[in-house]
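As a warm-up, study this chain.
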Amino acid sequence: MTPTISLRRASPADLAAVDALLARSYPRLLAADYPPSILVLAVPRIARARPELLASGTYFLAEDVRGRVLAAGGWTRGNLAGAEGSGDSGNVRHVATDPDMTRRGIGRALMAQVMRDACGAGVEWLDCLSTRTAVPFYLALGFRPLHPVDVPLAPGIIFPAVRMLADLRQANS
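Now compare it with the structure written out below.
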């Protein structure tokens, strides 16, 4: 059963709630696609809310009727080195869904809001560094895979990801 959700822009006051979501989401959802040797080093670095994103006005939360954060994610302006396309580009940022709430349309609703918001701000291309786990999710949203990427998290800590790209002009036509 899909819960009733509301979508809203995040604020710095949401730091603890987003930290809690990331801490419950990433270890469980990534376990099927990454060995423990990677997760033990990566999760403490990636499962922390980014205060600058919460304050950006381009980061969103999906909440249930009790105000519990079930998903989070957003975008920032700019592009990864060598992004394709003309016009303004943006990056998908720090997307997560509660592991007990996957496959219920919550992440899709959140990302639809992220993509509408970016498009409304004049962004034509959204670049994404997807986890291996999330590749099918982003494919279903219209992203296309470009190539594998090793994301440096700290000296000696590399996190394998997949660079993906969405043409928002095509997605919103």
